[in-house]
Amino acid sequence: MASAADQMAQSISLAKFAKATDLKKRLWFTIGALIVFRLLSYVPLPGVDPTALGLLSQKTTGGVLDFFNTFSGGSLSRMSLIALGVMPYITASIVVQLATSLSPQLAAIKKEGESGRKKLNQYTRYGTVLLTAIQGYFIAVGLETLGASQGIQAVIEPGMTFRIAAVISLIGGTMFLMWLGEQITSRGIGNGVSLIIMAGIVAHLPTTLVNLLEGGRTGSIDPVRLIGIVVAVVVLVLFICFMERAQRRILIQYPKRATQRGMQADRSHLPLKINTAGVIPPIFASSLLLMPLTISQFAGQRVAGESRWGDFIISLNQYLQHGSPVYMLLYGAGIIFFSFFYTAVVFNPEETADNLKRYGGFIPGIRPGKNTENYLDYVLTRVTVIGAAYLTIICLLPEYLVSALQIPFYLGGTSLLIVVNVTMDTVTQIQSHLLAHQYGDLIKKAKLKGGRLR
To answer: CA 77, CA 59: separation in Å to the nearest integer?
Structure first.
């Protein structure tokens, strides 16, 4: 049976794609939703002068906001309706998941099944509105003083009316993106929120490549260094693909049963991915860092030089600049923490051990029940250590090299990891749809043949 499935998977080609009507609808819906996302990134906030903001963004490049701007597809530098992207939604999801693991009441709601999941999603939406309102207010306040020292005014008419309009617009933009991501997940292909983040990163890729090649043409970048960058990116992509497919397989054996060849024992494998958490840890860690840093950076522009508090905020922003040692340390610690946290959310050793015991399965040499649970937890912890180390190296090492060597290539390890991981996940889902469609055709043919024989 397994060999037949492998042959079926290998025979999937683009010729089958033309017949998969449902898959084509899902792909077109996903592409249309991402086009809407890109169009919204060019709609400015009400009361903002786009020309003045463009001049200021060219003069104030660098820092953590450039990293945030990459994730939002350039929306932050243009101060569009979706300037905050889906980061408030991700931050709210982190808070709700952490609260679920700490609060017995929320843990009980989670165990209610579909109704509990809907309640937790509703709490996440409320949290998204609150976080967007807080960030939006500080952004609006910072915009009013942005460029004052350079004689450029980004806001046409500063005041409370502009702040209220900006907060409402940013809340509407973020909530629309959250809804759009949910629609992509249910009616399209892939994870909607991850695809929106990937689309924002990929939107910067052509400009980055053009600047890199232009630097090689003009001589500002050494040709040897340019070739080294290309080779490093290719090696990094191959390494990410290898690690994302790496598994630790645990042998599972079931009781013997009578067959034509005599008594035989069924065997299977329990696959544990090296990186069980996927791209969630870097996204979660970056969103937790970017939320307070966005507030402090815009608030610091407002109170700069007015008090010791303003000077402290400016100093804090300098220490936490993108690529600084403190930022790298906090970012790496966040990745490691969320690698273990999200793995514990996704895989429950106790539940897996109970399921194996219920169906008569066991790990050779390990007693069913508590011993199996402890063994699974033992293996999972060590696998997660490797996965967390891999994510930390992939996300931090390229950032450090770019900062140390002053290479104008802004597609860092985090961005590359998200793009490769989301692309692999989307391609896997497309292959699953094609495989299901092919099996459906075989079942239809079998039914037709059976009807003719009758």
So the answer is: 11
Max Cα–Cα distance, the chain, nearest Å: 90
Q: Tens digit of pLDDT for each residue in 115-144?
A: 888 898 999 999 999 999 988 888 888 787
Q: What span, in angstroms and rounded, lies between the C-alpha atoms of 413 and 395?
A: 4
CA angle 297, 302, 305 (to 5 degrees): 100
The pLDDT tens digits of the residues spanning 290-326 come to 766 666 666 555 554 455 555 666 666 666 676 678 8
Q: Coil, strand or helix: which one is 132? A: helix
Q: What angle do CA 21, 27, 31 make, to 5 degrees?
A: 145
Question: Would you say 436 and 23 are in contact if contact means Cβ atoms under 8 Å apart?
Answer: no
CB atoms within 10 A of CB 119: 14
Helix (H) or strand (E) holding 265: strand 262-273
φ/ψ of residue 16, rounded to 5: -75, -20
pLDDT tens for each residue of 333-367: 999 999 998 888 888 888 888 888 888 888 888 88
Residue 326 and residue 320: Cα distance in Å, rounded?
A: 6
Q: Is the pLDDT of residue 281 over 80?
A: yes
Distance between CA atoms of residues 208 and 202, nearest Å: 10
What residues does 257 pair with on adjacent strands?
264
Evaluate whether 94 touches 342 at the Cβ level (below 8 Å). no
Contact 258, 438 (CB under 8 A): no
Residue 179 has pLDDT above 90, yes or no: yes
Distance CA 366, CA 73 (A): 50
Give CA–CA dist 359/444, Å, rounded. Answer: 32
User: What does the pLDDT look like over 218-253, one tens digit per residue?
Assistant: 877 778 877 887 888 888 889 989 998 898 888 888
CA–CA dist 56, 26 (Å, integer): 40
Residue 168 pLDDT > 90, yes or no? yes
Closest CA to 170 of 298, 286, 80, 53: 80
